[in-house]
Design brief:
Structural class: alpha+beta
Shape: elongated
Order of helices and strands: EEEEHEEHHHEEHHEEH
Number of domains: 2
CATH superfamily of the largest domain: Jelly Rolls
CATH topology of the largest domain: Jelly Rolls
Strand order of the largest sheet: 7-8-10-9
Largest sheet: 4 strands, antiparallel
Oligomer: single chain
Length: 190
């Protein structure tokens, strides 16, 4: 889709599919920071402020997107100024989510933060395996979970070992994970 630093020539509305918001280190190592599903808008900040893209966006499932170019967007705003309310509402929702994520990283336990991160994968990639358990066929890396949760990869590894022993999670990246969704939701609220 687009890379961090690209020109903000427009935004995309995700009609169907899943996108990953990614960043890369100076050495090129990449991490997923968030997953976005249908209804998400990406690229709006660069389009509004004219600065380069702030993150890389990649499709992780087949996607259907609608592109709105900067000129068309500006013209639409001139013709329909009431759309500013929708834009502000979208940006406020993003800010609230950012605040919630910041509070989670400040107050929640490592286990709760990892549970919240894993639940993002359940929401976007989970299929009901048996009642109460979801199968995730997507290749989840502990590094990506650590980045989303805001914890060290070693903390994810320890948490996964504990959850394997407790049968909250079964399987592996190679075979797919089956997770006890209800228990993860309880832990995410701790």
């Amino acid at each position: 889709m687009f890379e961090r630093g690209d020109a903000g020539d427009g935004c995309y509305w995700l009609r169907h599919g899943v996108l990953a918001v990614c960043v890369a280190s100076a050495t090129g190592e990449q991490r997923i920071l968030a997953l976005l599903g249908p209804g998400a808008i990406v690229g709006e900040l660069a389009m509004i402020d004219g600065l380069p893209r702030s993150a890389t966006i990649q499709a992780v499932r087949d996607c259907e997107l609608t592109f709105v170019g900067r000129a068309a967007f500006t013209e639409m705003l001139h013709q329909h100024p009431e759309l500013y309310v929708d834009i502000v509402t979208t940006l406020a929702a993003r800010l609230r989510q950012s605040d919630e994520d910041m509070m989670a990283s400040s107050f929640l336990t490592v286990r709760a933060r990892v549970a919240r991160a894993l639940l993002q994968f359940v929401r976007h990639f989970g299929e009901e395996a048996v009642p109460g358990r979801s199968l995730i066929r997507y290749k989840i890396t502990q590094n990506d979970l650590a980045a989303i949760a805001g914890v060290a990869r070693e903390s994810v590894s320890r948490t996964f070992r504990e959850w394997h022993r407790q049968k909250i999670i079964e399987g592996s990246t190679r075979t797919g994970y089956v997770v006890h969704k209800g228990k993860l939701e309880s832990m995410a609220a701790e």
